[in-house]
């Protein structure tokens, strides 16, 4: 096993609405990522993926609130650090974040180099602008972006170029962990491919040590990440290698998620598309039992009243279900 770069233990965060209602968007999430590895997080809209991404930075502002748990980055626990300390010593150098719709995050009135100066001066206020420009120019060209982009405004760049520019800016200080939240959404296929290639290049060149890639597209994760976690209603319901999660999912939700999308891979083309009935539970009042029980055709009365923990079943795989893994696999085989 390699060095652990990020370790998260039983992280719980919530939103507090203007009506003083609590929404438990991340509930007991644990994960680890080793140096040189990438982890994909998948799930339908509203399952808590983006909230988890924000929570992992340890940078909380209303309506998002930290409840409990640990976030340990390269041996340093950042879960209860002050926001100003997080901004000055963690963001950008330890953890970098690429938000959804990142291409719209650039101020249209500023040149790209000004964003980079702002990022670097938070951590190194005395670094000369000439040195910053030289660093940015070399990094951009190494990542396949022309240095001329530094002197342009955001409005002069295409959507794909904006996205790649935001990624380059976010990783200019070579963070240990990069959290990419839907980095290829709203892009055409060609631009998506270039973004993915850039992220892989950052890993290969050592500019980032590890990566969390968040998306609702499981097949995309198969081609980008080493491992995949499936999230549902604020909890992780299954984890395994990318290959196992795409070709041999165990949890009924993971199985349904894979069955509802087209995967152009050998061995899955002949499968019929199926939909997952029902809707996710209200996270203001999460169910006491399995959160997927009301939508699961295998659920029993016990599933709806008993708390469900994570079960390990070898080779680093785990799932959250009361039904034994062998019984689940047997049921799946009989249905084929």
Automatic annotation (TrEMBL):
Pfam families in alphabetical order: ABC_tran, oligo_HPY
An MF annotation (GO) of this entry: ATP binding
Swiss-Prot/TrEMBL GO biological process terms: peptide transport
Domain ABC transporter: 11-258
InterPro entries assigned to the protein according to its UniProt record, in alphabetical order: AAA+_ATPase (IPR003593), ABC_transporter-like_ATP-bd (IPR003439), Oligopep_ABC_C (IPR013563), P-loop_NTPase (IPR027417)
UniProt superkingdom: Bacteria
Keywords: ATP-binding, Nucleotide-binding, Transport
SUPFAM superfamilies reported for this sequence: P-loop containing nucleoside triphosphate hydrolases
Keyword Transport appears in the UniProt entry: yes
PANTHER family documented for this protein: MALTOSE ABC TRANSPORTER, ATP-BINDING PROTEIN, OLIGOPEPTIDE/DIPEPTIDE ABC TRANSPORTER, ATPASE SUBUNIT
Protein name: ABC transporter ATP-binding protein
């Amino acid at each position: 096993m390699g060095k652990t770069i990020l370790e998260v233990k039983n992280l719980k965060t919530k939103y507090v609405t203007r009506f003083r209602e609590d929404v438990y968007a991340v509930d007991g999430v644990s994960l680890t990522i080793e140096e040189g590895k990438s982890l994909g997080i998948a799930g339908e809209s509203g399952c808590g993926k983006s909230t988890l991404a924000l929570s992992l930075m340890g940078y909380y502002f209303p309506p998002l609130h930290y409840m409990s748990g640990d976030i340990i980055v390269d041996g340093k626990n950042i879960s209860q650090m002050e926001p100003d300390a997080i901004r000055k010593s963690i963001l950008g150098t330890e953890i970098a974040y690429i938000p959804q719709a990142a291409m719209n995050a650039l101020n249209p009135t500023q040149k790209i180099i000004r964003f980079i100066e702002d990022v670097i001066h938070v951590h190194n206020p005395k670094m000369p602008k000439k040195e910053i420009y030289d660093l940015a120019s070399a990094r951009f060209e190494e990542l396949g972006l022309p240095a001329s982009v530094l002197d342009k405004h955001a409005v002069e760049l295409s959507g794909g170029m904006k996205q790649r520019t935001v990624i380059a800016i976010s990783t200019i200080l070579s963070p240990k962990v990069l959290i990419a939240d839907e980095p290829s959404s709203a892009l055409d296929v060609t631009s998506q491919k270039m973004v993915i290639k850039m992220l892989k290049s950052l890993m290969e060149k050592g500019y980032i040590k590890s990566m969390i890639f968040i998306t609702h597209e499981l097949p995309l994760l198969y081609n980008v990440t080493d491992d995949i976690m499936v999230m549902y209603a604020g909890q992780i319901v299954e984890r395994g290698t990318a290959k196992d999660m795409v070709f041999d999912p165990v949890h009924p939700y993971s199985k349904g998620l894979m069955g509802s999308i087209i995967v152009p891979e050998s061995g899955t083309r002949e499968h019929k598309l199926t939909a997952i009935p029902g809707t996710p539970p209200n996270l203001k009042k999460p169910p006491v039992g399995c959160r997927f029980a009301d939508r699961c055709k295998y659920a029993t009365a016990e599933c709806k009243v008993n708390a469900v923990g994570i079960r390990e079943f070898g080779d680093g795989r785990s799932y959250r279900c009361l039904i034994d893994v062998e019984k689940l696999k047997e049921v799946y085989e009989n249905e084929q």
